[in-house]
Design goal:
With 470 residues, the chain is an alpha/beta fold. It contains 15 helices and 20 strands. The chain is globular.
């Protein structure tokens, strides 16, 4: 742990910024080549230097404050804690030669969030700065076209249309397919509300169907049973990174002349029978919100292999304005455009997506080992034939009927466990649209998302478990 706090006085400010972001402690101890302490720098110090336009290539030793707090190995706890304040919670401990050999940390409250974005280990700041200096900061710029091209290629699709957020991606997908009043659109019961809200905003009628027991995704059988002569589309949701069973869904849809809009907001890179999700149906919709696998802050994208749909999506994204006749509007469109600044971050995030996936997979594997002794905890399936799920948030079921108590115990220790979404059918706004919901009601009542942070050490939670009696 000490190594994650140490940097050399010759390291650049950017390197130190990355170090602090990775250790999550807001502090770095600056040492010379002999490990002797030169100073302490915090994330607040770095923010002020950035605001003062200090070059991020400057060595950190050039910008150290003359006054800083440190302690000595062998001092009493009372002496060590006396140096802490509301602003100083962690500081280095030195041996007689002035070398940093340990640190003292006082935490009256440690908070582990359910997730946070991973932003400073790649080119995010570089590309963002480049976009900013180009002055192309709104809805035009090289990073937008680059992000669309690279993300759609990553997803095995020919076209990508970047959006302001994932909800608008769904909304424009429906609009581009002429889904509107009187049309029925089938959605799964276990999903975030954006899936059904966009159907309602389109003036269409959602039909809520049950999920599969093992995958927690839309049941193809229930989808088939819910089709009427007014059904126009289906929105299978690859929930928590788990691919839906797309072969039967696609077959049922084609037999009934239905459009398939994949909601892949939580499933960047997941595969069904070797093909990336989002590229299987007519349109795939993604979110790049701050808690997603890769993020642009807010942002989304539609992908498709149909050039006509690509044109329609672009038309609706930009106020419905004609490409050939400026300020001439062909449809009632939206302002759904992403900014060049957001796309710059997205390009950098996409460069590291496989590294991010690997870290999340490892974290999930560590969780599985940690919770193995608890037979009432059941993890999301990762062994379904033909389906390669990704780890968005690590998900599991608490099957002993005490899910809420389980969550409360962790939250009391400032560990942010979160229950699954409320099923759509259980909410007054949506209940009247329910076709079937037996499995979804049970799964949702047992489900919980646990902290999924790239830098999280599961051993911290193991220590919590020892005293919690879960």
């Amino acid at each position: 742990m000490l190594e994650s706090l140490l940097c050399n006085e010759q390291d650049s400010l950017l390197c130190v910024l990355r170090l602090i972001d990775n250790n999550g402690l807001g502090t770095a101890f600056v040492v010379d080549d002999l490990s002797r302490l030169c100073g302490v720098i915090t994330d607040g110090d770095l923010r002020r230097l950035v605001m003062d336009q200090c070059p991020l290539t400057d060595p950190v030793g050039k910008h150290l404050q003359k006054e800083y707090v440190y302690g000595r190995v062998g001092e009493s706890y009372e002496q060590l804690i006396s140096r802490t304040t509301d602003m100083i919670r962690i500081y280095p401990l030195l041996d007689p030669g002035g070398r940093v050999v340990d640190f003292f940390e006082y935490q009256s409250r440690v908070h582990i969030p359910v997730t946070k974005p991973d932003l400073l280990l790649g080119n995010e700041l570089k590309y963002l700065t480049d976009a900013l200096l180009s002055t192309w900061i709104s809805s035009s710029g090289q990073y937008i076209t680059r992000f669309e091209s690279e993300f759609s290629r990553y997803c095995d699709a020919e076209f990508g249309v970047a959006m302001a957020n994932g909800t608008l991606a769904l909304q424009l997908a429906l609009a581009s397919l002429n889904i509107g009043p009187g049309d029925e659109v089938i959605v799964p019961d276990l999903t975030f509300a954006a899936t059904i809200n966009t159907v309602l905003h389109a003036g269409a009628i959602p039909v809520i169907v049950d999920i599969e027991e093992e995958s927690w995704c839309m049941s193809p059988e229930q989808f088939s049973s819910a089709i009427t002569d007014r059904t126009r589309a289906v929105i299978p949701v690859h929930i928590f990174g788990q691919p839906c069973d797309m072969d039967p869904i696609m077959e049922i849809a084609r037999q009934n002349n239905l459009y398939v809009i994949e909601d892949a907001a939580q499933a960047h890179g997941a595969k069904y029978k070797g093909q990336k999700v989002g590229s299987i149906g007519d349109i795939g919709c993604f979110s790049f919100f701050g808690n997603k696998v890769i993020t642009t802050g807010e942002g989304g994208m539609c992908i498709t292999n149909d050039s006509n749909l690509d044109d329609r999506l672009r038309l609706f994204r930009d106020h419905g304005m004609s490409k050939s006749k400026r300020y001439w509007h062909e449809v009632i469109g939206f302002n759904a455009r992403i900014t060049n600044l957001q796309a710059a971050i997205g390009c950098a995030q996409l460069e590291r997506i496989e590294v991010i996936h690997e870290r999340r997979r490892k974290l999930e594997a560590d969780y599985r080992c940690l919770f193995e002794p608890y037979d009432y905890l059941k993890f999301q399936r990762n062994d379904l034939v033909g389906r390669e799920k990704i780890t968005w948030l690590v998900c599991m079921l608490v099957t002993n009927g005490r899910r809420d108590e389980f969550v409360e115990k962790f939250q009391a220790e400032h560990v942010d466990l979160r229950p699954f979404f409320f099923p759509l059918s259980s909410q007054d706004l949506y209940a009247k649209y329910t076709f079937s919901n037996e499995v979804s009601q049970r799964i949702a009542s047992q489900g919980v998302n646990v902290p999924t942070l790239p830098s999280l050490e599961v051993e911290l939670l193991a220590k919590q478990l020892e005293n919690m009696g879960v």
